[in-house]
UniProtKB/TrEMBL annotation:
It comes from Kaistia hirudinis. Transmembrane segments: none annotated. Keywords: Lyase. GO terms for molecular function: carboxy-lyase activity; hydrolase activity. The keyword Lyase applies. Residues 7-278 form the Amidohydrolase-related domain. This is Amidohydrolase-related domain-containing protein. InterPro entries: ACMSD, Amidohydro-rel, Metal_Hydrolase. CDD domains: metallo-dependent_hydrolases. It holds the Pfam family Amidohydro_2.
């Protein structure tokens, strides 16, 4: 019987031509047998997401760090092709002189419903003045902001910019801006958990964590102990990880501690995350699935 989840909140879309030589050079250091990135086109994503009800998809503007550079038009076209499955987020790079024009176009013309930003990948700190108009626009227009939080294998990506502690001042300054911390801020997951616990407008998600099972176990136990499991959402980071292995990685997390007195990740926690619904939490009153 196939494993299922409600919403994959972290799915990357790109064309073959969006994958640059830099990507293959870097990924070979961390996944020697990985080679080039798997397909990330709309049809591939749709097939992969067969066992989830909804998928939040976004392009990557990470040409000089990861080596993948796609765009919002690609995201919008995928949503138009599969509107019952995909919800599109815009991708921003604050270094681009037309960043705000592209953002307004993505939200108001392409009708994308959120934004994805990678401070560590673009080399732009969350406190950078170039982000002020972005924050103001998103807060004014009820648009959530998903951010890559945590480390990365990319060499040209300042690690400190992936620390979740940098989110708190922004969350306080923009209390109506919903901020979603991807990857639980790994390996500094405690920072992610305590910031999310303190700030009502900060949420987090567990994409691309299951393949480090001991770290993943500790993340989930800490989240239970701090009582923030209602603020954690499920995702894959496809094509970095697939739906079936991501669900299975969560459901089998306790196997590594069988026969010990260590605490267990509860069934309630697992089911709450797998069936989490960002559309009930990331927007203030307006459900993007209804307009």
């Amino acid at each position: 019987m196939p494993v299922r989840a409600y919403c994959d909140c972290h799915v990357n879309i790109f064309r073959d031509e969006d994958v640059l030589p830099l990507y293959e050079t870097q990924i070979s250091r961390v996944r020697p047998s990985g080679g080039m990135a798997p397909k990330g086109d709309a049809d591939t994503l749709y097939a992969e997401m067969a066992n989830v009800e909804k998928a939040i998809i976004f392009a990557n503007r990470y040409a000089d760090s990861v080596g993948i550079a796609s765009d919002d038009e690609l995201t919008a076209a995928a949503v138009a092709k599969y509107p019952d499955k995909f919800v599109g987020f815009a991708a921003i790079d604050p270094r681009m002189p037309d960043c705000m024009d592209l953002l307004v176009h993505a939200i108001e013309d392409l009708k994308l419903k959120g934004v994805k930003f990678g401070p560590i990948y673009n080399g732009v700190a969350l406190s950078d003045p170039r982000l002020v108009p972005v924050y103001e626009y998103l807060q004014k227009n009820n648009i959530p902001l998903t951010m890559h939080m945590g480390t990365t294998y990319a060499r040209n990506a300042p690690i400190d910019m992936g620390r979740s502690l940098h989110v708190e001042p922004i969350a306080l300054q923009y209390p109506d801006l919903v901020m979603v911390l991807a990857h639980m801020g790994h390996p500094w997951y405690d920072d992610c958990i305590v910031v999310s616990r303190k700030q009502p407008n900060v949420f987090c998600e567990i994409s691309a964590l299951f393949y480090r099972p001991w770290q993943y176990y500790n993340i989930l136990i800490a989240a239970q102990e701090y009582k923030i499991t209602d603020k954690i959402f499920w995702g894959t980071d496809f094509p970095a990880a697939r739906v079936d292995e991501s669900v299975d990685g969560l459901l089998t997390i306790n196997e590594q501690v069988e026969g010990t007195k260590l605490p267990r990740v509860s069934d309630e926690t697992m089911q709450r995350i797998i069936w989490s619904n960002p559309f009930e939490h990331w927007w203030h009153g307006d459900n993007p699935l209804q307009g």
